[in-house]
Amino acid sequence: MDDNGVMTSGTFAVALLIVAAAASRAAAQAPLRLVEHVDFERYAGTWFEIARLPFKYQEKCASDVTATYQPRPDGRITVTNRCLEANGRMQEAEGVARRVNGRPSSVLKVRFAPAFLSFLPMVWGDYQVIALGADYDHVMVGTPDRKYLWILARTSRIDEALYRSLVEQARSQGFDVARLIETRHTATP
After folding, report:
1. Are 75 and 130 part of one and the same domain?
2. Span 79-83, mean pLDDT?
3. Measured in whole angstroms, how far is the alpha carbon of residue 129 from the centre of its chain?
């Protein structure tokens, strides 16, 4: 401000940066916009990872990342993640997903830790469906803290326009899409 109480251009620029930073933090804290309903019978099967935000348990995954979902009689879902490591070894992890009471079917908790640790809340990770193709051909899953994001499809490649649209949706929900890693697939299903 100058002597007359008028904001100078430098002060105005700093004020704009503060407002923009606050708005960005507020967007990151807002709940994710979720898909209303997920039919897990239609969701079942194998999905190919198209892109992801870096995830420590996938550090060794060099290519061919898939996730297979299979509904169980107890209402939970068996989740099997696979990928090919750089050394050619197939890595596999099996877990279980469960619905969260009082939340839409698009909100799940997933556990890959041993079953005897199920009572510990920290072994259950967030899994929230934030985009889903009407014919269940693509899906985007994220975590409420915006640290993790996966774009999956029924085939190993998707249309570039669809990919850009999903990335823009993720950006609008506060995900750092500049850090997205596109997944390489060695075979085309």
Report:
1. yes
2. 95
3. 8
